[in-house]
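Chain A, query sequence.
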Amino acid sequence: MPTKAVAIVRAVVSTVIGHYRTAGNALEIAWNAMALMGRFGGWPSPSIGESELIGPDERRPTPSQARSSPAPPGPCPQRPLHQPEQWVTNFFAEQIAPWMCPVLQADNECKMHLLPLARIIGNMRKFVNFSSLGDSEKLHRYLTEQFGFLTIFSLPHTDDDTAAEQLKEAFDFVQEFAESCARDKHNPPFLAECFRTILTVWHGQKHNPGLDVNFVMEDFKSEIESRADISVFDHYLTWALPVTLPTHIADTVPNHAVNSHGATEPQCRKVDVAIIGGGFSGCYLLHKLRKQKFSAVIIEAASGLGGVWQWNCYPGARVDTSVPLYKYSIEEAWRTWNWTEKLPTTSELQKYFEHVDKVLDLSKDVIYNTKVTDAAFDDATNKWTIQTDKHSRIEASWFVPAVGFAAKRSFPEWPGLDDFQGVIHHSSFWPHDGVDLRDKRVAVVGTGSTGVQIMQEVSPQAKSLVLFQRTPNLTLPLNQAKLTKEEQDLEKNSYPDKYEARLLSKGGYDFSPSDLGTFDHNTEERRAFFQDKWDKGGFHFWTGAYRDLLTNLDANREAYSFWSSKIRSLIRDPTKREMLAPLKAPHPFGTKRPALFRNFYQVCDQDNFSIVDVNKTPVTNVLSNGIVTADGTTHEVDALILATGFDAITGGLKAINILNSAGENLTKSWSNGTWTNLDLMTADFPNMFFMYGPQGPTALSNGPTCVEVQGDWIAQAVASAREAGKQRMRATRAARKSAENGYEGFVFE
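Chain A, predicted structure.
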């Protein structure tokens, strides 16, 4: 780099650091830096290639294009009189940060002088409230990213005295990144994992100088290049590629993987049982296995426990089963915990899992921020080998993919979805700090429980709401209630009886269907029976109704007739009434899990609310400003909420490359239909158990009840194998052929 350029950078750094130490005002620092550069006639060129400047609203380059750096920023214009903070911050984010990132990777003299400035600019995000800089969420997200990336890119050149602090700060940024830029089609959780891998590689190289860093990074870059859905972000990983590090040394991967709690995990960990997922299933099974003196580990993709309750933080997200039924029956956990309301929200459920974690000390056996990519069984050793996206391995005698039934998200395949310029979020990618929908035209796609909950919450903010519906949700009244500590403390002595009762009920609740059939009552008695169940709220009208609700179609029609009469009375608009509560049932009542409503139908009845029946007018494509349907209508919206659910039940299992000893993938094994024995095992995959998965009571039961029954069974099965000196357990092919004809379903070998 020319001597003049180095002098300019040295002068800027010196001036900025001086202001930083004396004033500490991040925006003043930014302005002084730009003004000084302007006096020197502009920014020096990094001299490592040329490409177009990348702004926050422009398409990013491909990975190959991104190998060259952006052009230097232009001269500093006159300081604006209005909104200077927004302008200064935006200028840094759009021009200075992208310019500096590749410079930090270049092998030139300028780099070392830029590093202190990079760290200062990275710290600016601690002083600036990006959400106050206008209404553009895309801008806020971009600003946060740019400043945080500087923290990451300066890390390899940090001296040893501050390396640990910088490493933690960089990991903290990646966590913020995963939470704040949850853009659906760009799969930010995957990208966040890539950045964690970058940091882990750098961390590993410090402890293992023989590590071939480039080999690992190229592997990840290749994976990114194969994923068109995250092309908007791929240049960041390319810039992060440490191309100047040696490539001729060992071909190993990092010795350690760093999780969000600061612990280090060995490259290969050997345990008795490996569990995927830290939701209700995985946490309960880990607790039970410990009681049986087994070594076990949970591999969890998120940074905390809770499963779906760690991810689902969309507006209105709450459980549909009342407490204390919706929690563990483990006394040390419930004895010291109280709820604030009968049907808790996501935030309270997250706090509950933090409490459970603390009481049961679960995290010491949890590997966080890690996804399982492959699992294979070896006949010779009777062991499962589990591979993760951190290039680490776990070897286990028993394998439990407790991924739940809602682990793989479903997205609509609409042409042009990537072109939409407004706010867009999948419900399960909702940012933890929320989304500002004030005075926005909002579209909600889907009327599952998520769609119902979201619409109830965003209605007061939105300028207008349009619902894209395929099937109306046959909802039931929420019947929420506040709870006090005093009343819960009094009730706790009855908890053991409640938990025993839920084990004996049909759906895992503390109530069961009536012993009476629908037509054992006359018309008047039947209506009184229905009304009583309706008034109790929740699932009483569903799982506490007549015993023949799901076995007699005429009985089912009686229940639906009562339901539709109740809902239709809440809707004034006749067109909306027919779409939301038609006289003819769209499907037998209770064959889908109902959502619980609070003021959903009042929201739907508002003048600023409209419904699109996608059966009659399906979506054809998406434009930059809205959604186009088959009748030619463009529904202009500012925000698009995809409450489109999941590839339910089997999607999460099939997303993992699970191989039996013959090399057959689980997906291929189930290509002609899913099969399990009692929702616990499947033929040809020994020593592998399911929890809350396919062909179980899963979506039609109370989750905690279901997983405790299954967890107890699995823990006892593994203990029985140990006691008998057996190393293998499998579901028999005879059971697969005829599970109802008395064949032995499971055998130890």
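The domain at 264-407+649-748 is CATH 3.50.50.60 (FAD/NAD(P)-binding domain). The chain has three domains: 3-248, 264-407+649-748, 417-479+512-642.
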